[in-house]
Amino acid sequence: FSSVELTQAYLARIKAEDTKYNSFISVTDDLALEQAAAADSLIAAGDAGTFTGLPIAHKDIFCTQGVRTSCASKMLDNFISPYNATVVDKFNQAGAVTLGKTNMDEFAMGSSNESSFYGPCKNPWNTDCVPGGSSGGSAAAVSAQLTPAATGSDTGGSIRQPAALCGITGLKPTYGRVSRYGMIAFASSLDQGGPMTKTAEDAALMLNVMAGFDKRDSTSADRDVPDYTADLTKPLDGLRIGLPKEFFSGDINADIAAQTQAAIKEFEKLGATVKEVSLPNTALSIPAYYIIAPAEASSNLSRFDGVRYGYRCEDPVDLEDLYKRSRGEGFGPEVKRRILVGAYALSEGFYDAYYNKAQQIRRLIRDDFTKVLSEVDVIMGPTTPHPAFKIGEKSSDPVAMYMEDIFTLSLNLAGLPGMSIPCGTVDGLPTGLQIIGDYFAEQKLLNVAHQFQ
Ligand code: GLN
Which residues form the Amidase domain (predicted)? Predict the structure, then answer.
């Protein structure tokens, strides 16, 4: 079948099914069919690459030229991006077909996809439950087979956590591996784009397209991109796995802990050795992250002022009124909370007590990982402490929501790569196994994940 036929089939599926899940904010039918027709010409001319004609979806945090890029905010509901994010450009150049833009938490702030201006996205495994967040739309769309793959972004778990809660595979690469250019900034020292797919092999194929140096991103890593599919079939004999004891204690669902231990047993059968390790500052990742991320967000989001683009209030009486009402009306409650916390933490007299302290903890967390990763090849544990929770269950309690990020935040603070892969179900809902590796060890993570799948 042709790319046009494949694309039409997916578009029809989205139309028929997505009323249940709300995983897409925009469906780009015309663009998709145009790209598919161009791909079919390339295929006919014998000039096709791996991605030519394959449909994908982009999280609505990635700028797409000529298409609304909303970041799930009223602030950007009217924003048609004049340029493409590097990630989007790369997929276009590879011949991929853009089906649309997926739902997410507003400005990627959240763990449940409930803060979206376009309404919550629902978990395809149980539509009373959240799909996780912030890349909830990408996870739900892949899980419900509305797209074969999607892009996501991960500042504190936003690829891995929704992947876990929707039973798919998600990879957060090393900080700097994938360009952030055109990916709307939340917390610039933590943000990283990555693939959300059914399998590790698909994630490797996606990362082959996404990774690489970009001179338009000042923190992009200037190093070669390997073929991420090259090591997938390598045997795992002698693989050293570390299990951090802090990932199996505290407020964690007992079945998830047992499920994870059972998965580790499978790795032993595949030739791996397992030992207990310690990441003693794990619990501090929550307060440190929830200072650093809001601090950076308060600065990044100062650009939305109602002047240049985005939402503008009606009939402002003066400039201050324009700023106040545009921001007051354009941002939702969670975004406002982050801006307030961040601005407070950065303010004179509080900076040393909060922001500096958080940066010191960040260093300790990184050092913990460096030490452990000098003794083992990968670290494993659950991606989340609980399976998907009910829509509305935690939305009025921000701290309870933040606690769900306990196993994912520390990686972003350290800049390390991590993956979540499906690891069975608990009470009919999927759970994720998290695999963490050293800087730029994506190939190793993909190898380990592929052998398990
Ligand atoms: N849940 C975390 C937060 O709300 C992480 C979000 C993300 O990774 N974008 O900040």
Answer: 5-446
Contact 406, 285 (CB under 8 A): yes
3-210 against 240-286+357-452: fold identical? yes
Residue pair 113/395 in contact (Cβ under 8 Å)? The answer is no
Domain definitions of the chain by residue range? 3-210, 240-286+357-452, 304-353
Alpha helices of 1-78 — where are they, by DSSP H?
3-21, 29-44
Angle, CA of 145, 105 and 384, to the nearest 5°:
75
> Domain 240-286+357-452, what architecture?
Alpha-Beta Complex (3.90)
Catalytic annotation present for 81: no
Look up the CATH number of domain 3-210. 3.90.1300.10
Q: Give pLDDT tens digits along the chain (453 positions).
A: 999 999 999 999 999 999 999 999 999 999 999 999 999 999 999 999 999 999 999 999 999 999 999 999 999 999 999 999 999 999 999 999 999 999 999 999 999 999 999 999 999 999 999 999 999 999 999 999 999 999 999 999 999 999 999 999 999 999 999 999 999 999 999 999 999 999 999 999 999 999 999 999 999 999 999 999 999 999 999 999 999 999 998 899 999 999 999 999 999 999 999 999 999 999 999 999 999 999 999 999 999 999 999 999 999 999 999 999 999 999 999 999 999 999 999 999 999 999 999 999 999 999 999 999 999 999 999 999 999 999 999 989 999 999 999 999 999 999 999 999 999 999 999 999 999 999 999 999 999 999 998
* Distance from Cα 170 to the centre of ligand 1, integer Å: 15
- pTM attached to this predicted model: 0.98
Residue 186 Cβ inside 6 Å of ligand 1? The answer reads: yes
This model of the complex carries an ipTM of 0.98
User: Cα separation of 198 and 319, whole Å?
Assistant: 49
| CA pair distance 110, 158, nearest whole angstrom | 8
